[in-house]
Amino acid sequence: MVKEESHIMHKAVYGKIVLLRGYCPDCHEEALIVDGKFACCDREVQLPETASEKRMCLTIKRRRNTLTLKQRRMLVERQNNKCVYCGQDLDTFVWSERHTCYRKPSVEYDHFVPWAFEHATELPNMVVACGECNRCKSDHIFNSMEEAIIYVRQQRRLPHEREEDHVS
Asked: Where along the chain do its domains lie?
């Protein structure tokens, strides 16, 4: 009994990432479907109008590697002690509306490509960010650092950008 291709395809959900998967009759395995082709062998596939969702999980549970103190210092020095997204100096006190006092921004070490997606805690994938920017970026994936900076700044609407809007 041969099933129709639309019955054997589903949307694989990995956290917030949704990918179309299906059974490849040539390779006899499940494979991702990218641009209307199976990723395993480039066989074209007729895409279904609807597909069920299937929550996927990683079969290997991996713990995050933590950065050593030396690596964290290298990251901070590499970025001149500034948040990579907003450029805020991480050593100066700033007014916090939430806490109604002056505070230093929290220093957080962000995975540019989210850990949940790539499991890479290596220096080229790590950046230093203030807490607010890190939460704005969240687990979004970007093609370039410039794209990420634009996105985070639009989400935060930084105070100096609000002042420029009023002056114009």
From this structure: 5-55, 69-159
Cβ neighbours of 86 (radius 10 Å): 20
- The continuous run of DSSP H or E covering 69 comes out as helix 69-78
Is 71 in contact with 40 (CB distance < 8 Å)? no
Which tokens belong to 53?
Answer: 């969702």
Q: What is the pTM of this model?
A: 0.55
From the list 125, 124, 134, the residue with the least C-alpha distance to 156 is: 134
Three-state secondary-structure class, residue 100: coil
**Residue 40 and residue 88 in contact, taking contact as beta carbons nearer than 8 Å:** no
Give the model's pLDDT for residue 87. 92
Q: Side chain identity at 149, as an amino acid letter? A: I
Closest CA to 149 of 94, 124, 140, 36: 140
